Write the structure tokens for this entry.
Amino acid sequence: MKINRKIVGTVMVLGLTMAACGSDDDSSDADVPATDAGAEAPSDDTVEESATSDDIDPPAEDLEVVKLGQVLPFESVLAGLTVPEGFGAEVGIAHANADGIAGGYQFELVQKDDQLDEARMNTVMRELDDEGVDFTFGFQITSACKSAAAAAAEDQIVLASHCASASLTDPPVSPNFWRLNANDITLTKAMGLVLAEKYPDIEHWDVVGYDYEVGRSLWTNTQSAIADDLGREVVTEQEFWVPIGEQDFSDVVAAQSRGLTGDKETRGLFLSTYGGGTTAYLQQAEPLGLTDEYAVIGQNGAYWETAIALGERAPLLESAYEYFWSCQSNEANDRFVADYEALAGTKPDTGAYQAYTSVMWYKAAIEKAGSIDPADVQAAFADLQLETLVGDTIDMNGDTHQATQPLTVAPLFGDADAPDQVGIESCTIVHSRDL
């Protein structure tokens, strides 16, 4: 399966052209016209001409193709998260190929839809193996990561880009499983630190979340982190846990509204939902003015797509994640943001960043290994460092198979005058190794 087939050719040309123009100066930061999402892919002659720029040696037709498999539930209730991740991977492929992969290689992206179905993962990983895909990444939730690790062929590498449960690493669930993204413990420590420092007067918290391992641990770990920083107990007043993927929160918001206690200045709300679930909850809470009844709303994870969907109606929410597009200014990030926006029509979110970084991770590992043999590439993972768009490094622990990386906590809110109508009030960046 190939997602956004018509768009892929367009972003490849865009990325290759920008890299060639911006290799020696800041011209890669120039404005780029938005790509028509419905445009036909360019002809083979156009792609070949762009790919044979002076920045790439040898020419593209002489490069050995290395397939990277991105596995995500593209067509599911999480589509709002996974579509940007697909775009992020496509930009990553374009940039990696444009910059050149030492050893004479070029990447080809193969996207597979796991449909948020654990049982389907066996089929997905087998199809990738049959298509000669040894290097995989993506995997949206913890159960998908576990299933992929169990289903992977002997030589297939499972590089987790999104699933967060700390139980997956240290030790890894399988020898060929590695996690590039932050786990829930480091994310919640960053969030707890910021919430404690910015909102020390909150006396109790209400919680709404998805009822699964990570959903519950995101709150309990954040709660512990707040308590550790404040040096006192953090009280949970109301808790509402719903099945993962639930979209109907009408009963929850009604009960939550009735159960409010204390003054607004002493109440906090923590959302342990994501994607369409967060959007649905906030839409259904809006008529009751429920979010206005809290001094702060916090969430570990993906709020960006929800904020885009709600526009200027999106309430201010403290969000902890690895990336927010405007929290740093450097040439590499400017290039990514410009090419992503030309492709997708929006600014990139953390999922797009995670997917892009996964592609660049494979590039760095292959170059370190001097080989595309999966065993050699895995050996290169150990103690590998990768400079990120945030301006700090991702560092992989060869024993635990868990990476550390920079994290960002930022208040996001609806702003009609901001790009995508999402304002970013401030940025607090910490590195997970310091937590």
